Amino acid sequence: MTNNRIHGARSWRQAKPVVLHPKFFQGFTDFRLGRPFDYRMLDAWPTLDQHRYENGRELAAECRLAGLAVAWIDRTRVPHPLKSLVVERAWARRSTGRDRCGRSGRAVSGPSRPSSCGSRRSCRG
Questions:
Q1: Cα gap 28→99, rounded to integer Å
Q2: CA angle (55 as vertex; 52, 58 as ends), nearest 5
Q3: For each successive 10 residues of the chain (125 residues), what is the average pLDDT?
Q4: Which residues of 87-123 are buried (b: 16+ CB within 10 A; e: fewer)?
Q5: Which residues, in sequence order, are CB contacts of 96 under 8 Å at separation 6+?
Q6: For all residues of the chain together, what is the average pLDDT?
Q7: CB-based contacts of 63: which residues, under 8 Å, 6+ apart?
Q8: How far apart are CA 40 and CA 15, in angstroms?
Q9: Residue 94 DSSP SS3
Q10: Do 90 and 15 contact (CB within 8 A), yes or no?
Q11: Is-contact 122 107, C-beta < 8 A?
């Protein structure tokens, strides 16, 4: 199963709850410390926790590839280099002109209604 219906944040405000998630921190830390990916551990977790853990590992890998040495010790305090990378990625998504559902274009005028992604803003689905 892919998580292609999950779209990245377009602002720090949207990204912050994800980055502060305990499983995100665990995934980031596990990758940084060189711990192997433990599929059995993830199988016991709810899907959201699995995604957050994988997101944390992926972002730690991106930091390493970018040459960023991020020492993240306290889960509730995101280090500046990590926050900067997340904000940079969010701004890049925002500049593509796509809505939260990944569709391009402007919102349909009329009353706001829930869509398939849960957004009440610019989605048409």
A1: 28
A2: 155
A3: 59 92 97 94 95 95 91 94 90 71 44 42 41
A4: eebbeebeeeeebbbeeeeeeeeeeeeebebeeeebb
A5: 104
A6: 79
A7: 70, 81, 82, 85
A8: 27
A9: helix
A10: yes
A11: yes
According to DSSP H, which parts of 1-125 are helical?
12-19, 22-32, 39-43, 47-65, 80-95
The predicted-structure confidence for 72-98, as pLDDT tens digits, reads as follows 999 999 999 999 999 998 888 888 765
Tokens for 74? 């306290």
Q: How many CA atoms lie within 13 A of 121 on its CB side?
A: 9
Beta partners for residue 98, in sequence order:
104
Assigned token pair, 51? 């995604």
Report the 10 Å Cβ neighbour count for 69.
Answer: 9
DSSP type of residue 11: S
| Helix 80-95 / helix 12-19 crossing angle, nearest 10 deg | 130
**DSSP letter, residue 24:** H
